[in-house]
Amino acid sequence: MASSKKTAPRAAAKPNTKTAMPAAEFVVGDGGELHQVAAPGQPLLTTNHGLPISDDHNSLKAGPRGPVLLEDFILREKIFHFDHERIPERVVHARGLAAHGYFELTDSLADFTTAKVLTEVGERTPVFTRFSTVAGNKGSADVARDVRGFAVKFYTKQGNWDIVGNNIPVFFIQDAIKFPDLIHAVKEEPDRGFPQAQSAHDTFWDWIACTPEAMHMVMWQMSDRTIPRSVRFMQGFGVHSFRLINAEGQSTFVKFHWTPVLNMQSVVWDEAVKLNGADPDYHRRDLYTSIRDGEHPAWELGVQLFTEDEAAAFDFDHLDSTKIIPEEVVPLRTIGRLVLDRNPANVFAETEQVAYCTQNMVPGIDFSDDPLLHGRNFSYLDTQLSRLGSTNFHQIPINAPKCPFANMQRDGHMQTHPQATRVAYTPSLIDPSGPRESHTEGFRSFPAAVEKPKARVRSATFGDHYSQARQFFMSQTEPEQDHIVAALVFELSKVELPIIRSTMLGHLVRIDVSLGERVAAGLGHRGEIVPAPTDIPARTDLAVSPKLSIIGQGPPTLVGRLVGALVTDGADSKVVGGLIKAAKAAGASIKIVCPRLGGVVLDDGSTLAADFQMAGAPSVLFDTVAVIASEAGTTALLGEAAAVSWVHDAFAHLKVIGHTAAAQPLLDAAGVEPDAGIVALAKGGDAATLTDTAAAGRIWAREPSVRTVY
Ligand code: HDE
To answer: Quick one: pLDDT at residue 1?
Structure first.
């Protein structure tokens, strides 16, 4: 028990002026431990059952130095709860980040659906959106090369509707029965427990080499789509076709697309590798701080609408999730906007406990016959039971609908609804006023005709595994193609068994001869190339689809991007001021990086506060950088490896770099060669040239001078 020796309140215990809450007082205990004691009127610390606690620092002992007594139920309750704080992480998509927001409909789809969320223009439907990586465990790094989950729960007036999508519009497999194999192959190898959050290992490529249907997805996976700059800069896709059903009962197929208002952007591979060390939480920090700072990320919801007859004319089967419908074939119709404007109050309660379910549908929307989707409709409900431990997971606030819900399901673990009724069944004469089915408002499945013999069979219309893989590769710009080649070289170079590489090269050659040859050259492959099975349909040449590229979508912009300025003592205050102004005018944020956290004194005697100390903020954290250094400052930086790498990495990562003339020796030491992305900052006004150049993106033309392009 604490004695009554009082000590001065610490900063944290100052009176809270907002609520006029009395300050807790610090009291030193007999053993020198510091207790913080409730002031009159302050909430009391209690057990989970409401018992006020007198001492939260000492367990009950037989004397001050005696053994701890089993009688101490307060200790036992605290430790018991702590022991069970963790729940099983998601078997896939374990690492996630999420935010609240809303979806606002701007264009009604009333001709196609009765779903209110898609027909009531101007209506704001609350949403909770969770982004995730797939393969890594909960503690893995954010910028792993991986597909990103993009799951949106709409709390509609007609119940929860979940679009549980990815940032890639296709998937690895065509039938859900293959999912456990895919995931077992990509996760850590079970006999060694590594590698973590990576596909660059034998079991993944072994499985892929044996699975031609995965080739289209592999092209996307090896592209820069899987190393996004942030979740704010990536697309999302519902992947499967769904049905919209209108008031006349007519069905139209639909695919859902999320398009980021800030445009798409990815990092380069070497940057991703370094980012994971510099800040493993890069994506979650980015989403959190942008929402906290009022820069609310937004996406447009687009739909591709098509009829059964139109679908029959496609040169692929839209029920096959390894295929896209090019936007040139069925254009996107923008119907609304998703805005994320509130961070979770508690990450466990919300981000971890949210339970997305593909089968969460609303009247007016229905499933297509995509076999992958049907498997998912079982899996998501089932997985919540092992993850959240109760069939009542829908009662957790983040999962509960915001519209009324009632039925005759009762009891079970963690039941929190009082359900104070005598009658828990229908029909009933005792209680004819309880919840009942509605033939007008209730969900109805589209009465699609199905009368075929049962068979475990894959449709022949799913059989073309190479044409869209090639279409994706051919639709990329030159640097993007180079990155796919480089990613394949990297991944396959980590594979130990030569037969896996030889077999993969056979698939790549089938997709595009030059792709296969370039990867083989990058690997220095001397062995054979095993041809892809010839009885799989040969690929055809499809029209290129420029929409499949990241580069060049949307007008150039720096909005939402981060400018990092490395500033030394004695630096030109006008240049610093000009850069701060230009960055803000361009809609970017600027962070000042200094050799020491205390900041610097500029040439006019003013002090500039630092946001970061140099070694703690490598240039990978920023989209565009500037070195604003004095001569003496540059001389000092030349002795710092962190400063040389700061500039070297920015150059190697194809970033636009601004610099003062005095900083030139540092640029020379970092191997920087002049090009269109190296901008001199002699006076304040030059910063606009820097931000304009940076808005256009990276300096792709520099790439062949910083790494071998195979
Ligand atoms: Fe998932 N997937 N998945 N998936 N998936 C899960 O559900 C599954 C697939 C996706 O932020 C699990 O609640 C099967 C495609 C996202 O909480 C699980 C198949 C797409 C998330 C599951 C697929 C996705 C998941 C694990 C093959 C893109 C994270 C935890 C038929 C359209 C949601 C959970 C979140 C999560 C099963 C394939 C997206 C096990 C069986 C295709 C975004 O139920």
So the answer is: 47
- Structure ipTM: 0.97
For residue 176, give the ligand 1 atom closest to its CA.
31
Give the integer Cα–Cα distance in Å for 607 and 509. Answer: 60
Q: Is 456 flagged in the annotation as binding? A: no
Nearest atom in ligand 1 to 182's CA: 27
| Ligand 1 neighbours (beta carbon < 6 A) | 90-93, 96, 130, 132, 149, 151, 164-166, 171, 176, 179, 239, 321, 354-356, 372, 375-376, 379-380, 383
Per the CB < 8 A criterion, the answer to whether 8 and 27 are in contact is no
> Model confidence over 466-519: pLDDT tens digits?
999 999 999 999 999 999 999 999 999 999 999 999 999 999 999 999 999 999
pLDDT at position 475, please?
Answer: 98
Q: Which residue has the tokens 């990509």?
A: 186
Domains observed in the chain: 87-395 (2.40.180.10), 464-548 (1.20.1370.20), 562-706 (3.40.50.880)
179 is in an annotated binding site: yes
147-161 pLDDT tens trace = 999 999 999 999 999
The pTM assigned to this predicted structure is 0.96
In a 10 Å sphere around its CB, with 0-12 CB exposed, 13-18 middle and 19+ buried, how is residue 41 labelled? exposed
Helix (H, G, I), strand (E, B) or coil at 488: helix
129 Cα: distance to centroid of ligand 1 (angstroms): 14
DSSP state of 92: S
Cα dihedral: 131, 137, 139, 145 (round 10): -60
Residue 166 neighbours by CB under 8 Å, 6+ apart: 147, 148, 149, 150, 236, 237, 239
Ligand 1 pocket test: pick from 89, 92, 131, 170 the residue with the most ligand atoms within 8 Å of its Cβ. 92
Reported as type and span, the H/E element at residue 151 is strand 148-156
**Average pLDDT for residues 533-561, to the nearest whole number?**
93
